[in-house]
């Protein structure tokens, strides 16, 4: 454990030392990963499905604000869908427009979640999103996560039905629009996922804030159980055909990720809890103080054992 | 000699100035009513555009029904119900943005006041 703590301290020191370079690098990696995922999932526009374009755009993202990545990802998605069919692009555009105009006005901090949620869906660990957002976010994060879930289901729905869409008559605009809107709105699995994730976030948040020992871990486990239960009960009720084993394995992985987040964000020693009581003129205070676990990184001392070079005296000859 | 208290105070203030402070100062440049009014106006415009976009998709979805019933349906009644729905959506969104931006303004004022208090404290330290 001490080694882990030392490693954590090293990582923290490293990040704070090289933050200026690491921030653009992280943005670059995030932009690169998200754009490549979009290209692999719905790469219908061949001109965009080109590693050099992705690299250039990702490099551009690394010097722009974080929200620019989301904008670029939205543009990429709409362009790819435009290559598939105009109607898909129009519906995706409306969805992004509503997201950007109505929701992002309020919560510029949470917007990254809308990008990370579909990425986690591709990586098969979507359950990590509500767990970590419950731990480090607020209940309002449920809306961001919900938006992310809608975006990822829209993309995967269109990707799955691409052959059906391209087989339809180009003139038949209305049929295509109906096909996409019906597929999105009648997708019970999506609605169930949004509900499950929202409940999970609220539960994790509420338990995390309780004044009990190991609140974060309990919150994580309770959130994971509630998430799995809702998804399974929903599967029985609405016949959503979700893979039970996939949910359980994904949740276990997600809990591991949440545990890592906890290790970095909130690591305290519950064995040294102190409870104190005192009062002033207006209040009684029941204070529970939990000490943070900290270790000092072992500092390296360089001891010079070589003696300084002797100067040759004038009488000695050099060889 | 380095005055530790002064350094801590100045660091805190500098970090505030660099991050939230910038936003807070730009917010409190407005009068409260002006700021909230401007933000609500922006929200109303955003809500109008979104409503139009969603309505366009709705019309496209029901295009065939509209074409069939265009002569039978009461267009005035339909228009009225659309306008009422629009007003409800924009009204609700406007109220939400009023609440959010009013609280944001208050928060900005509060933290800026705290910043000015610290500034005064710092000035007193120099006077000593």
Topology:
The complex is a heterodimer of chains A (319) and B (128).
Chain A (H helix, E strand, L loop, with lengths): L1 H16 L1 H24 L8 H12 L3 H19 L1 H18 L7 H12 L5 H9 L4 H20 L1 H6 L5 H13 L2 H21 L6 H24 L5 H22 L8 E6 L4 E6 L30
Antiparallel strand pairs in A: 1-2
Helix pairs in contact in A: 2-3, 2-4, 3-4, 4-5, 4-6, 5-8, 6-8, 7-11, 7-12, 7-13, 8-11, 11-12, 12-13
Chain B lengths: L3 H15 L1 H9 L3 H30 L1 H7 L5 H53 L1
Helix pairs in contact in B: 1-5, 2-5, 3-5
Structure, explained:
The complex is a heterodimer of chains A (319) and B (128). Chain A has 319 residues and is mainly alpha-helical. Chain A has a domain at 85-266. Helices cover 68% and strands 4% of the residues of chain A. In chain A, strands 1-2 form a two-stranded antiparallel ribbon. Chain B has helices at 4-18, 20-28, 32-61, 63-69, 75-127. The model of chain B has no long low-confidence stretch (mean pLDDT 87). Chain B is rod-shaped, with a radius of gyration of 25 Å. Chain B is built from 5 helices and no strands. Chain B has 128 residues and is mainly α. Chain B has one domain (4-127). The interface between A and B is medium-sized, with 15 and 17 residues.
Q: Mind summarizing the main beta sheet of chain B?
A: none
Pair with the biggest interface: A-B, 15 and 17 residues
Structural class of chain B: mainly alpha
Rg of chain B from C-alpha positions?
25 Å
Tally the helices of chain B: what do you get? 5
Strand % of chain A is under 5%
Mean pLDDT of chain A: 84
The main sheet of chain A comes to:
2 strands, antiparallel
Span of the ends, CA to CA of chain A: 57 Å
- Beta percentage of chain B is under 5%
Helix content of chain A: 55-70%
- The arrangement of helices and strands of chain A along the chain is HHHHHHHHHHHHHEE
